[in-house]
Amino acid sequence: MAFGADRNSRLALRLFAVVAVMVSLSFAAVPFYSWFCRTTGYGGTTSVATQAPKDVLDREIIVRFDANVAKDMPWKFRPKQMEMKVRVGETGLAFFEAYNPTDHVTAGQAAYNVTPDNAGKFFDKIACFCFNLQVLKPGERVDMPVSFFVDPEIVKDADASQLKAITLSYTMFPTEVPEEERAVGADQDSAGASPATRLAVGPGAASDQTLEQ
């Protein structure tokens, strides 16, 4: 009996260890999948660059822009231009507008995607509002930029070299408002601060630029 009980205890411990490992791997899979998509462009995930390439080719490509809001996101969100032509390797600058029609401070985070999928690894963003959490005061309207280029390496890719157009799409998701932002929003509301247009920039920026309307 003692032997059987001991064997059952060891089996239970092994099963517990297996479950623990599987749970750990499930959490690790999320950042790994995100890294894999950013690195390979799988699923239309774009790349991030610190600077534009030195070579600008004569070939032009159309970049189209699309904006959506997730369920329960109260913001109005739209591209300020439907499309633009850029040369491969040339830096483009586009703007998206977000508006908070509610009577309270709200926050959002943009997720992005590029179609067709095989263009994702050749579409590089230098600066983007999607790098940062966006917080809007009641009635606030902001213009948010994205700086990008199409990597010249696209012309060497058998699948993507013949592309004439690329679509950059964003979906804005609701998120929790940081505590410090709630306090700032409450102070500005009580002081009667006017809405502003904030130009959010990418990682490494000291702060967002704010232009009073």
TrEMBL record:
Subcellular location(s) of the protein: Cell inner membrane
What UniProt keywords apply to this chain's record, in alphabetical order? Cell inner membrane, Cell membrane, Copper, Membrane, Signal-anchor, Transmembrane, Transmembrane helix
Q: How does it sit in the membrane?
A: Single-pass type II membrane protein
Cytoplasmic face of the membrane: 1-7
Q: Its biological function?
A: Exerts its effect at some terminal stage of cytochrome c oxidase synthesis, probably by being involved in the insertion of the copper B into subunit I.
Q: Which family does it belong to?
A: Belongs to the COX11/CtaG family.
Question: Residues on the Periplasmic side?
Answer: 30-213
- Biological processes annotated in GO: respiratory chain complex IV assembly
Q: GO cellular component annotations, sorted alphabetically?
A: plasma membrane
- InterPro entries for the chain: CtaG/Cox11_dom_sf, Cyt_c_oxidase_assmbl_CtaG
GO MF term set: copper ion binding
Q: Which residues cross the membrane?
A: 12-36
Residues of the region (Disordered) are 179-213
Upper lineage is: Bacteria, Pseudomonadati, Pseudomonadota, Alphaproteobacteria, Rhodobacterales
For this entry, the protein name equals Cytochrome c oxidase assembly protein CtaG
